Amino acid sequence: MTDVTDGVLHTLFHSDQGGHEQVVLCQDRASGLKAVIAIHSTALGPALGGTRFYPYASEEEAVADALNLSRGMSYKNAMAGLDHGGGKAVIIGDPEKIKTEELLLAYGRFVASLGGRYVTACDVGTYVADMDVVARACRWTTGRSPEKGGAGDSSVLTAYGVYQGMRASAQHLWGDPSLRARRIGIAGVGKVGRHLVEHLVAERAEVFVTDVREEAVRQITEQHPDVVAVKDTAELIRVDGLDIYAPCALGGALNDDSVPVLTARIVCGAANNQLAHPGVEKDLADRTILYAPDYVVNAGGVIQVADELHGFDFERCKAKAAKIYDTTLAIFARAKEDGIPPAAAADRIAEQRMAEARRR
């Protein structure tokens, strides 16, 4: 583990690093920055993953999240066919209270100090405008605004990829990719969830939504009066006759409490790390609930930001994101062939690609 404090580099080693190549702890006292940058793998190329800005309860919690998220990015990038490994950064604190230009520039300097081993982008709590600031201190920054040479909001293609994953799941389970009249519940209608609503409404699905922010739900229901708002996620997952549940907020949505009461036949959403712990994927399979692996179906955003590094073309990216449909079907087929849950099948395919890259 590498600890960077006010520009001074210290090297620490921990036995529980989880196979990560490098973990950087960043602190800049002048701006109040405290951050963690985790590089899980560079087997396929420079690590690529977003920057999460969140008020973690402790530094230990922040490190754990960075480790989990960066590992997930390795698998996501491998399954998306990108020449990138996995990395993730988390900034500790409430972005509404402590985010400043000075803090973002300090963060950018820490990313730049890694010399291109990690390429950053947006995530929960960070936006295109933030990446424009970070890019002033670090050229290894994506998710910038079109005015600054970037691709703009990556949530558009993230939602499109999740939509394709839903269509593939419907095809696998019901023999028809159409989502018309399907009852679909979305937990979290923020950057990605609101775009996902648009796709589902256009296909005339029955859409139910919830979010911890009442304003976000109000905006959706005002724009789409047929969309049904429910009180919270606990109510959403119990909606009678729910066909698809889409977790689109923070991770851990599928756990020992939610899986036993989930009414949906399919889980397919944008949130990272939806499985709260190993074994949940088997619990889903035991209940004959089809799980579309999160890092497969939510890869549209990373496809977009990766393309930005080579000169962004939206239609080219959308065509790549559309292939999430075929990738999801291939995972279901592999799962059936190997007699394992889809999450395990996706892991096997991703690990195979990374292992082949290491041997080259």
Helix-strand layout with pairing:
Layout: E1 2-5, E2 8-11, E3 22-28, E4 33-41, E5 47-54, H1 59-79, E6 85-92, H2 95-98, H3 101-112, E7 118-122, H4 128-135, H5 155-174, E8 183-187, H6 193-202, E9 206-210, H7 214-223, E10 228-229, H8 233-236, E11 244-247, E12 266-267, H9 280-286, E13 290-291, H10 294-297, H11 300-308, H12 314-322, H13 324-338, H14 342-359
Parallel strand pairs: 1-3, 5-6, 5-7, 8-9, 8-11, 9-10, 11-12, 12-13
Antiparallel strand pairs: 1-2, 3-4, 4-6
Helix pairs in contact: 1-14, 3-4, 5-6, 5-11, 5-12, 5-13, 11-12, 13-14
Beta-strand share of residues: 15-25%
Specify Rg, calculated over alpha carbons. Answer: 20 Å
CATH T-level topology of the largest domain: Rossmann fold
Low-confidence stretches: 1-16
Helix/strand/pairing category: alpha/beta
> Which architecture of the largest domain would the CATH scheme give at its second level?
3-Layer(aba) Sandwich
Q: Largest sheet at a glance?
A: 7 strands, mixed
Question: Termini, distance in Å?
Answer: 26 Å
Protein model, in words:
The protein is α/β, with parallel strands linked by helices and about 350 residues long. The protein folds into 2 domains: about 1-70 and about 85-145, 3-Layer(aba) Sandwich (Rossmann fold); about 155-300 and about 310-355, NAD(P)-binding Rossmann-like Domain (Rossmann fold, 3-Layer(aba) Sandwich), CATH 3.40.50. The chain is about 40% helix and about 20% strand. The protein has 14 helices and 13 strands. The strands form 2 sheets. It has a 7-stranded mixed beta sheet, sandwiched between helices. Helix 3 packs across helix 4 (about 130-135), helix 5 (about 155-175) packs across helix 13 and helix 13 packs across helix 14 (about 340-360). It is globular and about 55 Å long. Residues about 1-15 have low confidence and may be disordered. It catalyses: L-valine + NAD(+) + H2O = 3-methyl-2-oxobutanoate + NH4(+) + NADH + H(+). Belongs to the Glu/Leu/Phe/Val dehydrogenases family. This is Valine dehydrogenase. Pathway: Amino-acid degradation; L-valine degradation. InterPro entries: Aminoacid_DH-like_N_sf, Glu/Leu/Phe/Val/Trp_DH, Glu/Leu/Phe/Val/Trp_DH_C, Glu/Leu/Phe/Val/Trp_DH_dimer, Glu/Leu/Phe/Val_DH_AS, Glu/Phe/Leu/Val/Trp_DH_bac/arc, NAD(P)-bd_dom_sf.
